[in-house]
Amino acid sequence: MWRRHGRSPGPELVGDCEAFLAGHVVERIEERAAGEVPVWAWTNLLAHGTDRDLRNECTVLRARLVPTAGKWREARSFLAAEVIDLADDCGPLAKVQRAVLVPLELEFACEDVAGWGPRQWVTSVEAALSQHRRASRRRVTRDARPPR
User: pLDDT digit string (tens) for 42-77?
Assistant: First the structure.
């Protein structure tokens, strides 16, 4: 299944898998200069990154390997802060990622969002985060009520 042109998958496939699971697909694509980064890949850090990764995304200015990705990086940085805020309010982070961001990443990979820009992506991710925040608050309110 993973063989292309008679070659064994080897280290390249393993590196791709590691990058995906760690939330670093964008950087992996940029290192290869593999063209335009898909929308789902920008969601990958939010869905799989650690708390430290997300906080670094908010605060560290990294060299831009692909200059046209600047707006996407700004958007991802903004959303990383939003995810951290949501995890602080309704966390833990892993739960927020499993409930909201991993399904969203999959949705973006399966739907036709290739023409989206950073603004559409941010709007969509923010809507999902807001919906999760509202649902979490309703649960807390419901659970705080005294039994009848």
Answer: 999 999 999 999 999 987 655 454 455 688 999 999
Ramachandran class of 61: left when φ > 0, alpha when ψ lies in -120 to 50, beta otherwise: beta
CA distance 118 to 10: 34
How is the chain split into domains, by residue range? Answer: 10-142
pTM score, two decimals?
0.82
Q: How many residues does the chain have?
A: 148
- 100/112 Cα distance (integer angstroms): 19
Residue 96 near residue 48, CB atoms below 8 Å: no
pLDDT in tens, 15-24: 889 999 999 9
Question: What does the mean pLDDT of the chain come to?
Answer: 86
Dihedral angle at the C-alpha atoms of 3, 18, 132, 147, nearest 10 degrees?
110
Q: How far is CA 99 from the centre of its chain?
A: 12
